[in-house]
């Protein structure tokens, strides 16, 4: 009996100890789970309520520039709602004890913009405000962006966005991007001429979105193509771009050392802090004294970004202006906003050329191989995977690339005879059937024999000079080096 009781007590103790251990383990697991949950990155919070109360307090020493602008894009968008299309935010200021957002319009108001200011003045953030709000208020059919960076990783997230016409993030891609812009201006010129529209604003075709080009540091372009080439490129592009629906936003630490000719095409100067007053006039068109006469604080008199006064600018347009402070967009909020924007459809990767000179070499090498294969073997070469997966712009900036391109084009030219005229059946079709139907690729290649321009080709085959059909023609011609348009950069 006693034995049984002792056994039962022992069993009870054993069970209690087991339950206790189990509970401890559960507690431990729960603690681990909480830690694990905390380390999972949470989704970015939605933009804060638009009805935030902004304090009408100006930043000391910065004129009317608001001390604490909103830190999300929501309040900006609310203000832009009342503005006509293509309006952009330029910064916040205080007047009559109220808070205002200064806006501008890229049609009929501002043409090109120069954003200047020493390191950390807030140039990239100012441009981010402009591009994000444009993208969030316009479709990719209305606005496209070309972003030429090379400074860092700030603009990486834009590459796959439907609004992005071209994004160059490495210094090595800059010359190529410049050549593309020249080619795009020429393409637009031809389209407008054909449609008998004297300028982009009058064009009704619906296939030419406004192209806003952002250059994050002008010096990097100078490093890429040299000072002389850069000056002539800027002179040509900035003078002509406006009529073709292209707007430039050029950022640089200090515009003093750049040619004054293209600077005369700038209609809005957005000038941030400068350490020397000799930089005031080149970056704003007015001296500190002239600015002071208009109650404006000159760049050299602004509080320094190193004292926590980033994002403060003096805006100068047509001899007048205002001091403002931009909204500071955090990386998290930028990513949240980017997530709201439509992505590029997968197939469009073929339509929007996005490759570096290095990739160009790869494509050109492939072309060369295809051409040689076809000539040597006389057999039908298989389309190259690399080539079929990408579009290609023929404009390339380096001499080496140009020479290679010439060779590649000659070797790959399906209409060049080897020993005898090769029939068009031996041509390597550059795109998969589902991207551009094989039958259409063959028709385009065949028709290229007898016309002198892509536009003419498109008219003959499809009785149009725009839309998807022209994109087919352009991409097939680009890929095979047919009816090439010439680049001006670097020559
Ligand atoms: N509107 C703003 N309000 C407060 N701080 C700002 C604002 N804009 C920028 N800053 C501060 O300045 C820093 C640098 O901003 P940004 O990268 O836009 O400057 P930048 O002029 O492009 O610099 P750099 O020429 O060195 O690339 C930000 O990380 C932020 O700390």
TrEMBL record:
- Which positions are annotated as binding ATP? 117-124
The residues covered by the FtsK domain are 96-285
Q: What name does UniProt use for this protein?
A: FtsK domain-containing protein
The answer on whether this UniProt entry bears the keyword Nucleotide-binding reads: yes
PANTHER family from the UniProt entry? DNA TRANSLOCASE FTSK, SPORULATION PROTEIN RELATED
Spell out the Gene3D superfamilies in the cross-references.
P-loop containing nucleotide triphosphate hydrolases (3.40.50.300)
Keyword Glycoprotein belongs to the record: no
Q: Enumerate the InterPro entries for this protein.
A: FtsK/SpoIIIE/SftA, FtsK_dom, P-loop_NTPase
Q: Which keywords label this protein? A: ATP-binding, Nucleotide-binding
One Pfam short name: FtsK_SpoIIIE
